[in-house]
């Protein structure tokens, strides 16, 4: 059985005061979350504050990216060992905003995946197609290509050390959610693709859905057999909405 997971991607939002309030709100409602693993991914600068504030709770912390190198002259990057040192357990990699706004390639993202594994951090590996790609009918090809970059570098077994987040780009931050059927179709394709190489890995790997998941649509999406949780952007910034999604998982 795969444990459901709900991860909040706070993106570049927050302040010392708002982070404190948001964590306090989530913490206060955690007793009502029975099944889901709950992860918050604040901007890197707030990770120490979040780590201090989640002490004693079941909330885990992740970063929003991770360096592909382990140390040295890489200005602006944050190494996996540093994230681990602070207590982070997860790192989002390959988010579509990193791919489209910062030109991150499949190969670079695969290297980030590898670096996370070396540091003992679980990558939350984002993949997904743009609207144009969906309209061309190449959604599965795009997801396969993005996954194949990691398999080529690290082997299929490595996928079991991470979490995959299927995030159709056209659904991120747009309010347009993939229908439960659309999302399930792609999740089943991803799991089936991995199963052709390694059935045990395919059974084990958690595949989250991301893209305008919110308190109103989470239950139906999370009820799909191959949707193991959610990567949540906008709705993760409101404690009550985030908790409602966490309660809907499992
Ligand atoms: C995200 O940024 O990963 C995301 C899913 O955002 P939103 O929920 O706001 O669409």
**Architecture, CATH level 2?**
Alpha-Beta Barrel
Shape, principal axes of CA atoms: globular
Bound chemical compounds: phosphoenolpyruvate
Number of domains: 1
CATH homologous superfamily, by name? Aldolase class I
Q: Reading side by side through the largest sheet, how are the strands ordered? A: 1-2-3-4-5-6-7-8
Helicity range: 40-55%
- The total of beta strands comes to 8
Structural class: alpha/beta
Q: Using the CA coordinates, give the radius of gyration.
A: 17 Å
**pLDDT below 50 for ≥5 consecutive residues: which ranges?**
none
Residue-averaged pLDDT: 97
Through-space gap between termini: 11 Å
Which CATH class is shown?
Answer: Alpha Beta
CATH fold description: TIM Barrel
User: What string gives the helices and strands in order?
Assistant: EHEHEHEHHEHHEHHEHEH
Largest sheet descriptor: 8 strands, parallel, barrel
Please indicate the percent range of residues in DSSP E strands (runs of 2 or more).
15-25%
Explain what the structure shows:
The chain is built from eleven helices and eight strands. An eight-stranded parallel β-barrel has the order 1-2-3-4-5-6-7-8, surrounded by five helices. Helices cover 44% and strands 15% of the residues. The chain has a single domain (5-248), classed as TIM Barrel (Alpha-Beta Barrel), CATH 3.20.20.70. The protein is globular. The mean pLDDT is 97. The protein has helices at residues 16-29, 47-54, 80-86, 96-101, 106-119, 131-135, 139-154, 180-197, 199-204, 218-222, 239-248; strands spanning 5-9, 37-41, 59-63, 90-93, 122-127, 163-166, 206-210, 229-232. It has 250 residues and is α/β, with parallel strands linked by helices. Phosphoenolpyruvate binds next to strand 8.
């Amino acid at each position: 059985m795969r444990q459901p997971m709900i991860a909040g991607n706070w993106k570049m939002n927050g302040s010392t005061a708002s982070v404190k309030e948001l964590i306090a709100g989530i913490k206060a409602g955690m007793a009502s979350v029975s099944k889901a693993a709950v992860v918050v991914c604040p901007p890197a600068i707030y990770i120490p504050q979040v780590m201090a504030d989640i002490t004693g709770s079941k909330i885990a912390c992740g970063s929003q990216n991770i360096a592909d190198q382990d140390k040295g002259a890489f200005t602006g990057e944050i190494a996996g060992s540093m994230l681990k040192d602070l207590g982070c357990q997860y790192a989002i990699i390959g988010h579509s905003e990193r791919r489209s706004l910062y030109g991150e390639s499949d190969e670079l993202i695969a290297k980030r995946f590898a670096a996370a594994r070396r540091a003992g951090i679980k990558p939350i590996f984002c993949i997904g197609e743009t609207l144009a790609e969906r309209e061309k009918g190449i959604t599965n090809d795009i997801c396969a290509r993005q996954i194949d970059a990691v398999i080529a570098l690290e082997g299929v077994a490595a996928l079991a050390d991470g979490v995959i987040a299927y995030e159709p780009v056209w659904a991120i931050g747009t309010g347009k959610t993939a229908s439960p059927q659309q999302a399930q179709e792609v999740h089943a394709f991803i799991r089936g693709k991995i199963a052709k190489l390694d059935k045990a890995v395919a059974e084990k790997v958690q595949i989250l859905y991301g893209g305008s998941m919110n308190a109103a649509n989470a239950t139906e999406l999370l009820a799909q057999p191959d949707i193991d949780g959610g990567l949540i952007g906008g709705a993760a910034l409101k404690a009550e909405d985030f908790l409602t999604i966490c309660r809907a998982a499992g």
